[in-house]
Automatic annotation (TrEMBL):
Residues 268-288 are annotated as: Disordered. CDD domains: WW (cd00201). It comes from Aphanomyces astaci. InterPro entries: WW_dom. It comes from the Eukaryota. This is WW domain-containing protein. Transmembrane segments: none annotated. The lineage of its organism: Eukaryota, Sar, Stramenopiles, Oomycota, Saprolegniomycetes.
Amino acid sequence: MYLRASRLESMASQLAFREYFHGAIANSASSAIATTWRRHRRRKVARLEALSAAAVVVQTIYRSQRTQRWFRKYVASVRRSATSIQRMVRSRLARNHAKTHVAAMKKVVEEAKAAQWSQAALRVQVAWRKKKGRMSLHLRRRAQEAEAARRMTSAKRIQITQKVAARHAAAKRIQHKFRAYRATRLGKAMLATLKLSRRKRERRQAKQKIIAEYLVDSAAAREQEHALMIKVTSNHNAVQGEKDRKTAEAAAAKAERRRLALLAAETTVRHPPQTPLKNKTAGKKGKGEWVEAWDDATNRKYVYNTKTGESKWS
C-alpha cells in the first residue's frame, strides 16, 4: 500500500490515499516488520545452532586426537623401556656366558697342558714301572684317577646346568613382573580412557537435554505468540470494520445533507445580492448584466441578473 501511494504523481493524491488507507498501510508495515524480524531471529538461531554443533565436533576431534597422541607416546615409552630392559638382561647374560666360556677354555687349555705333561710323566713312569715290575699298581691308580676325573666332570656339568636353570628362572621372573607391570599400566590407561568417554557421554546427554528443553520452551513461546497475533488481528479487523462503518455512515450523511441543500437551493427564490462579488457580462450580445454573488445557506456562489432577476448556480 505504501508503494502504491508513492507511485501517485501529486502530493495531494498521495496524502489523500495515505489518509484513507492509513489502517491498511500500518497493517502491511507492521506485517513486513514482524516478518523481517522473525526471519532475522530464525537466521540468528540457525547460525548459533550451527556454530554450537561445529564447536562440539571440533572439540570431540581435538580431544580424541590428543588422547591418541598420548596413548601412542605411552606405548612408545613402554616399548623403549622393555627394549632397554631386554638389552640390559641380554648383555648381562652375554657377558656371563663369555666369562664362563673363557674360563672353560682356559681350563681346557690348562687340562690339556696338564694331560700332556701327565702323559709324558706317565710314559716315563710306565716305562720305569715296567722296568721295575710294578705295572699292576700303576694300572689301579690310573683307574682310580680316571673315576675321580669322571666324577669331577659330572659334578661340574651338574653345577653349570643348575646355574643355567637359575638364570633362566630369574629371567622368567623378571619378564613376568615386567609384563604384570605393563599390563597394570595399560589397564589404568584404558580405565582412564573409559572414564573420559563416559564423562563425555554424560556431558553430551546433558547438552542434548538442555537443547530439548529449550526447543520445548521455544515451541510454547511460538504458540503463545501465534495466539496473541490471532487475537490482535481479530481486534484490528473489528476496529477497522467499525471505522469503515462510521466512515460510510458519515459519507452517506454528508451526501444526504448536500442533496437536501441542493433541493432547498432550487426551491428558494433568489433576491438581488446585497454585496455583489463581481460584475460579469454574458458577452457582446447578452440579454443583460450578470453579477456573481455568495449564498451563506449553501456556501456556494451563484450568478444574478440585475435586469431580468434570474439566478443561476455557478
